[in-house]
């Protein structure tokens, strides 16, 4: 598999749950007025020394919002996840979106629970609350949008979080003249829609996309859609399931982006099991039948009574876009690529729109399970997700003329030079150097008369090449863009091994597969998401030496076993806090990886190593956590000093509010010390968050914390997060000899 990981060097400050950008494909900027304080978890460059004026383009570079420019109404439906709704409203109400979001409609679909305005007191100037007398289901979205005071509506479900910078980018891309709204979706949903493109000449050209992962549509579209549904005399059930009808009846191939969203879960999901999937398929099929009834005839409209209500249905010719898109995490920018994500030619022509689901099934069989896994595990969004440990990969040949590009929106014109940076495997240096580069000028890409410069760098334990090409900015501008066009044909590498599977984090014991000339990035790409296991061991005071020896044998045995796919983030001993206590943090490939690993351990030689530790342990506990994406775990390093682990027991239901408050204030700390990582509990003791820092000494810790108190925003962050926590603990730790983090 070839990896084109666009690990943007535009680092973002991540809202909600994110933090850097990936092909290390990114923009870096040189400020004309000298050094700029770092605001990043990952460095602006992986070179040993860089100019102090070099800064990674981030969300903070967006201009302050102008009064009166907001023209989007956000619409959130509440049913059974009210705590999620409160957190989402908090994000939508952040100052960064003051120039985008004019109002927030909370439509309460649960008639048994009356919501009150004081529950949104922190955003009372924007929130409009409507307690529906009945459950209007998804029809409510369009009813709310149709009467909005703004020309655009942003729609999302209550079990999904969309980053503010992504919403900003959606609005920057949207236009009053756009034929299609813009839809966000996770990779498997983008694939689902891509496999059901249908064209029936001369009038039908449609596909399907959900709205709930985050979408922006025009108010006029919602109004026309409601008028059409009324004119079609759809049933009450069909109207309630309006999401299943909107994109299909629009009769365009929707612009769907690979998203950077965060699943929130909780509450009672609407679509559950095969019954829910079958209901969705039934209504998707019904929407296609309705489209046939309107357009599958010689003289339009096929139903004369619809003459005045057909404006929602697009009649202009349309074809699927060859370009895939993903919004950046951390700053307002859009990644685009014309590299083919599906190698085979899909079936698209049909005799009727109602064959849409049959087309999806046929195309799914055509591409096979292997290609589907590649598509969903290494999507374009991994190029710009804020994490250099993930990658956009594909296993298809790359044609001459195909491109990758990055375009920013709304950046302040403060710089005299911009750089486009990529992290690639050493074998890819020649490919990058042979490519042509273009920059965006007045809305048009023009060729740059310069070549990429590449240097050796280390990311964790992996040798890579950091390549960059830059331009001098002749005059202040607000948007910047780069394009890299391949001038050589790359032939896909089809053989694979266990070592070359995607990996998210690097450990000292992880052996990186050397890639042939085909990869644009090392393969520690994510396999969806990672779950973190925190192990807490309380020992007998006279047996610490024996325990350390037994623990090293056990944990390093796990890491070195290629069957397990488990990584050791670090192992520490407490020096201040509970004495004779050890912490171990391991990472697994989702819950499935945890299940497989623990099952293998119980039936392998590792069980003996595990049991060898038990005589020295008084008590132990285990907790499964997930990493905050805006606070990614540092790669293995040996910087010396001490570690501090801070643990907060939150008031139930306040996790999103805590995270949003902490994220806004964390930059005050990042200016003086880089965080090691942050996690929130999912199994075990719930409603807990942990974060870890590394200092040269306790004196250094004291000085850093005192400096942070002098920065605007930190005192407010501490005050607000303290109100959300029931207890707080701090432990000073020293790494064990085999810990990847030292």
Written overview of the protein:
With 742 residues, the protein is an alpha+beta fold. The protein folds into three domains: 72-266 and 277-381, Spore Coat Polysaccharide Biosynthesis Protein SpsA, Chain A; 397-497, Immunoglobulin-like, CATH 2.60.40; 530-735, Alpha-Beta Plaits (2-Layer Sandwich). It is built from 17 helices and 32 strands. The strands form seven sheets. It has an eight-stranded antiparallel barrel, surrounded by four helices. Strands 6-5-4-7-12-9-13 form a seven-stranded mixed β-sheet, with helices on both faces. A hairpin with a 4-residue loop joins strand 30 and strand 31 (688-695). Helix 1 packs parallel to helix 14, helix 4 (187-194) packs antiparallel against helix 9 and helix 7 runs parallel beside helix 8. It starts with a strand and ends in a 7-residue tail after the last strand. The relative contact order is 0.12. The model is unreliable at 1-26, 28-41 and 491-530 (pLDDT under 50).
Summarize the structure.
The protein is 26% helix and 26% strand.
Spell out the CATH superfamily of the largest domain.
Spore Coat Polysaccharide Biosynthesis Protein SpsA, Chain A
* Strand order within the widest beta sheet: 25-27-26-32-29-31-30-28
Helical residue percent? Answer: 25-40%
Low-confidence segments, ≥5 residues, pLDDT <50? 1-26, 28-41, 491-530
Q: State the distance separating the first and last CA atoms.
A: 33 Å
H/I helix tally: 17
The figure for the number of domains is: 3
Strand content is 25-35%
The overall pLDDT, averaged over residues, is: 79
Largest sheet: 8 strands, antiparallel, barrel
Overall number of strands:
32
CATH topology of the largest domain: Spore Coat Polysaccharide Biosynthesis Protein SpsA, Chain A
Secondary-structure-derived class: alpha+beta
Radius of gyration from CA coordinates: 26 Å
Global geometry: globular
CATH architecture name of the largest domain: Alpha-Beta Complex
CATH class of the largest domain: Alpha Beta
């Amino acid at each position: 598999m070839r990896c084109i990981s666009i690990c943007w060097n535009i680092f973002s400050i991540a809202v909600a749950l994110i933090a850097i950008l990936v092909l290390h494909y990114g923009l870096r900027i040189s400020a004309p007025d000298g050094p700029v304080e770092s605001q990043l978890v990952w460095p602006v460059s992986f070179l040993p020394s860089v100019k102090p004026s070099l800064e990674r383009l981030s969300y903070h570079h967006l201009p302050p919002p102008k009064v009166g420019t907001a023209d989007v109404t956000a619409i959130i439906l509440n049913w059974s996840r009210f705590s999620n709704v409160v957190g989402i409203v908090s994000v939508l109400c952040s100052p960064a979106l003051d120039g985008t979001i004019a109002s927030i409609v909370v439509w309460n679909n649960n008639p048994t629970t009356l919501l009150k305005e004081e529950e949104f007191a922190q955003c009372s100037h924007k929130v409009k609350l409507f307690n529906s007398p009945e459950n209007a289901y998804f029809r409510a979205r369009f009813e709310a949008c149709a009467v909005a005071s703004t020309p655009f509506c942003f729609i999302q479900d209550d079990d999904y979080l969309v980053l503010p910078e992504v919403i900003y980018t959606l609005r920057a891309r949207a236009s009053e003249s756009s034929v299609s709204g813009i839809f966000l979706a996770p990779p498997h949903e983008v694939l689902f829609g891509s496999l059901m493109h249908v064209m029936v000449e001369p009038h039908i050209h449609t596909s399907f996309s959900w709205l709930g992962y985050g979408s922006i549509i025009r108010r006029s579209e919602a109004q026309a859609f409601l008028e059409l549904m009324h004119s079609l005399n759809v049933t009450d059930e069909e109207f309630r399931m309006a999401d299943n009808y909107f994109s299909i009846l629009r009769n365009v191939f929707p612009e769907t982006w690979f998203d950077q969203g965060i699943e929130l879960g909780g509450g009672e999901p609407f679509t559950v099991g095969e019954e829910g999937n079958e209901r969705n398929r039934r209504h998707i099929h019904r929407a296609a039948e309705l489209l046939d009834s309107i357009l599958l005839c010689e003289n339009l409209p096929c139903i004369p009574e619809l003459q005045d209500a057909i404006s929602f249905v697009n009649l202009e010719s349309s074809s699927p876009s060859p370009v895939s898109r993903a919004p950046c995490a951390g700053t307002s920018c859009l990644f685009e690529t014309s590299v083919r994500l599906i190698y085979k030619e899909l079936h698209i022509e049909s005799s009727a729109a109602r064959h849409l689901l049959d087309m999806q099934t046929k195309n799914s069989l055509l591409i096979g399970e292997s290609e589907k896994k590649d598509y969903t595990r290494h999507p374009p969004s991994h190029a710009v997700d804020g994490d250099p440990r993930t990658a956009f990969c594909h296993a298809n040949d790359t044609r001459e003329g195909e491109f990758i590009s990055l375009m920013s929106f709304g950046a302040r014109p403060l710089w005299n030079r911009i750089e486009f940076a990529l992290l690639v495997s050493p074998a890819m240096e020649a490919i990058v150097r042979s490519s042509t580069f273009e920059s965006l000028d007045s809305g048009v890409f023009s060729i740059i008369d310069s070549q990429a410069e590449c240097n050796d760098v280390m990311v964790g334990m992996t040798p890579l090449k950091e390549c960059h090409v830059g331009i001098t900015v002749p005059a202040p501008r607000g948007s910047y863009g780069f394009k890299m066009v391949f001038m050589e044909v790359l032939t896909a590498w089809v053989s694979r091994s266990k070592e070359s599977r995607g990996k998210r984090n690097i450990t000292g014991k992880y052996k990186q597969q050397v890639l042939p000339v085909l990869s644009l990035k090392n393969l520690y790409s994510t396999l969806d998401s990672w779950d973190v296991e925190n192990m807490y061991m309380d020992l007998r005071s006279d047996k610490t030496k024996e325990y350390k020896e037994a623990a090293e044998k056990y944990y390093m045995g796990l890491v070195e076993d290629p069957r397990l796919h488990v990584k050791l983030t670090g192992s520490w001993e407490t020096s201040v806090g509970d004495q004779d206590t050890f912490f171990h943090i391991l990472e697994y490939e989702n819950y499935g990886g945890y299940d497989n690993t623990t099952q293998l351990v119980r039936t392998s030689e590792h069980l003996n190593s595990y049991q060898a530790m038990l005589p020295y342990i008084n008590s132990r506990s285990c907790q499964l956590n997930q990493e905050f994406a805006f606070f990614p775990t540092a790669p293995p390093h040996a910087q010396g000093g001490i570690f501090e682990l801070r643990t907060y027991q939150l008031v139930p239901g306040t996790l999103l509010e805590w995270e949003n408050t902490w994220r806004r204030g964390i930059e005050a700390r990042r200016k003086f010390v880089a965080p090691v990582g942050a996690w929130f509990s999912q199994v075990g003791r719930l409603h807990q968050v942990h974060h870890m820092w590394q200092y040269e000494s306790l004196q250094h810790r004291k000085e850093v914390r005192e400096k942070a108190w002098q920065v605007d925003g930190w005192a407010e962050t501490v005050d607000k997060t303290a109100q959300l926590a029931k207890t707080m603990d701090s432990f000073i730790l020293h790494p064990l000899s085999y810990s990847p983090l030292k």
